[in-house]
Fold these 4 entries.
Entry 1:
Amino acid sequence: MVVLTALLLVTALAPTLAGPDDALEATAAFPWWPRRGAHLLAAFLVVSVLLLATTVTGAHFDPAWLGLRDAAGLLGLVALGAATIGAARAWFLPLGWTLAATLYPGSESVLGRILTWQAQPPASTAAAVTAGLLALGGFGAYVLAGPAHRAPAEAGQQ
């Protein structure tokens, strides 16, 4: 349940990773990378607060850092998707990876634990490292490159 909850929260924030006009970034007097970094940190805080709010209910996710691990990794995948295929399609990566990890649970091999990091138990070092690398990689790609620019025909549709 924690994986699906984190997935839904993160994918709902994916469209916010790009603005309505790609030309605004080229005309800005200040660099955008600090704003993009703050945006991702704020998105992580929103998801984390919502996941941690369950600790005071009877239906809490235990341990709490498991939700934070999944949220960080999935948000990294969304940020990586926004930087490569655009914010409108950024949710494809985390949904596809989570679907594959759910349908084909990993073996006991290290590669299996890495590929199914979302479904691994809280004590899995491979899952924590994979989620951390995805979070850092997605954060770096999105902050430095920004969202992928859309074709002019796509920009007019939103």
Entry 2:
Amino acid sequence: MYHTSRHPLTDATPIDRLLDRLLSDSGVLGPLQAHRMGHGDDDHEHGDDAEADILAQFAEQADELHERVVHDHGIFVAEFLGATGSGKTRLIERLIERAPDDEEIGIIVGDVAGEDDATRFRELGVSVANVNTGKECHLDPSLVEGALEDLDLDALDTLYIENVGNMVCPADFPLGAQARVLVVSATEGDDVVRKHPLLFQACDGAVINKVDIAEAVNADLDLMESDVSEIAPEMPTFRTSAEHGDGLDELAAFLDERGHVHASDHEAYVAGTGHTHAHEHNPR
């Protein structure tokens, strides 16, 4: 099992370590001073530039993950994001339950602490890597890279990544997936979409979950979907009840399409450049 174990007060987080590695040699910032860029006494413009460099480093790591998992091993990767309680785990369970018997599925589960979700997935007979992030409110490529050590990539067809329950932090940290799916629920209130525009704009598809109880919690589903269209005009939105299985056909079809479109794009890339990989891409 892959865990992060750090003392809550004295140990540096993965982001702190990356910041220290990138900046300490220049003497600009100390090991932990840079964690909140632009909020200290250092030049604000330099802070902005340094933060951009760090985010670019994470993006590069995500590209490397994508190359290794998707192209070299032919695995379809879908990341699910959203607040705690939005229904991410239940949606992934439903997708696993409807998968063909010969589809080999792996899960990377990100949680601040515990193994509750990981235990649920193990009971479905899939391969699971559990990542406890401690103080971190999101997964990052280095944590995913570590979690992959617990999975047999040669055996997998599909990899689901369930990010830590958070509607802010994951926006700037892609994980190399072909599809980033943001899940919100009617129980979060029908203003949840417009309160979190950046995360919607960083994803490929949106799910409005728990539609079966929208009336009971006085949530306007049409308003929520309209807000998604305004914030991210090209984003497809799916209304689901993960508990009852409603809307899963449409969501699964979207994921299949993402895999096939990516495979076609990659084949065109290989044809145009002559670059090849160890394995042919075989989505889902």
Entry 3:
Amino acid sequence: MLKGKKVVIVGGTTGLGFSAAKAFIKNGANLVVVGRNPESCISAELALGENARALKGDASDSTTATKAIEMCISEFGDFDGLYHVAGGSGRKYGDGPLHELTLEGWQKTFDLNLTSLMLSNQAAVRKFLELGKSGSILNMSSVLGFSPSPQYFVTHAYAAAKSAVTGFTKALAAYYAKDNIRINILAPALVETPMSARASTDGKIMSFVKTKQPLDGGRNGKPEDLDGAAVYFMSDSSKFTTGQTLYVDGGWEVSEGQY
């Protein structure tokens, strides 16, 4: 589905992004994956093979996405799509319930989850316009941006940032549709990644998740559960789709969940 596509994944060396990277390679893409950790960059490049390159960089740095896109063009001759996965919890910086939320927690959470995404989307749109070509951007949101869980997942800055991804993406999709630039969203529920380790090792939370994400026997999501959707949005199969959010959530949004 991605034969001949040249794609950048920001946050592509671990977790959801790395799983997508493997699926993109399997489907014929050439890739540049971006990660903060030099060791994960090396291991990702080795695992993905000759059709992938890794770039060490912080997604919140205004130059990182631009460098990745230029690397994609210099290494593979073109740039067709951006998948922005990078983000993270601001809990350790002070994110939490509003009455406990610190200004640092608020600002750091928005830098991780919204500012970095804005920068990568801006770099991609600028390059598509410069090249005079169509392209696809896929952004990562979360069910917590529209379907809160008040007992176990109480990070109000994170919820606000992920909700903002929706408004931001829809505004971009509307404006750049005339340029044939598609911009869409994936919104997962709880997925097994390093970020979700706190919840995934808590028996009470896992009992709740079993009823809140009841598909496939009730379980945590796996990174590969999102791969098919990511491939679709990077492929020409989605050429008439923009401004949409696909909830890959195991039934979270439509399930009550038992505390």
Entry 4:
Amino acid sequence: MKPSILYILLLSLCLFFSSCAQVSLKNFEEQGQLPLDNNQLQAQFNGKHIHLESIYLDATVHFQGNNKLQATDYLGNTEKGKWTLVDKNLLCIEFDTWYYGDKNCYRVIEDNGSLHFFTRNGAPSYKGTLVNVDSANDSIDHAKDVEKSVNDTSAQGSAYAVMNTSKSLPEDNETTKQRFTRLAQNCPDCNFSGVDLSNAQLSHANLAGANLSGADLTNANLRQANLQGANLSNAQLIRANLAGANLSLADLSNSDLRGSNLIRANVTNAVFKDTNLTGAHLESIQGKIQ
């Protein structure tokens, strides 16, 4: 996958997605829940319609019996591709154009009717749910009625174009900004680079290790949020409320923190190179700004 202006990369996303409840592969394994083996994957996916959701994709995918797949996202964009099972119990998905045709492989854990997809290194990627054929067709028919505005689809792939659309979504759907705000409530290691999260209510959010470079967090409420190790370089954090937030090891270089509230924030080993802290409230911070 290659960078775009609004770089919303795999990541899966953030994905445990009606609430973006991110859990790690290690968490599951520590509880005795192991990834599905190839036989289980075959039974779980072959011929089934699975709804996949992440910060950059919301689509129903038909895993056909001939190892081909067809997908329709929530704006009615359609895609084809193929799926395979490989050694070490990995499910591999390769779309024709989405994600630039890259082949991505996942370990999958089934938990309470949900399928949790993890990359080879254990990073969360998708949340999947089984849908019946009638529901899948209804969703596709509804999506086709939605007016689409696809921006540079051939260059970026329709999954990205969906996130860049300037058209309003139907009233029964979230706006892109609302969706990102919801997902960001609990999305460690997710990629929100360049995303508009201005005025977002993210108090106590878990964004540890997340990529928020270039994101607009103006007036965002990040009180006591976990931003440990997050990339906040070049981010707009003007008047952001970061009181009590964990910013240890975070990269805030070239970010704009004018008028922000950093009271009692943990900035241990955080990077503040060329950061604008004009008017920022720095009382009782933990660590040193360096």
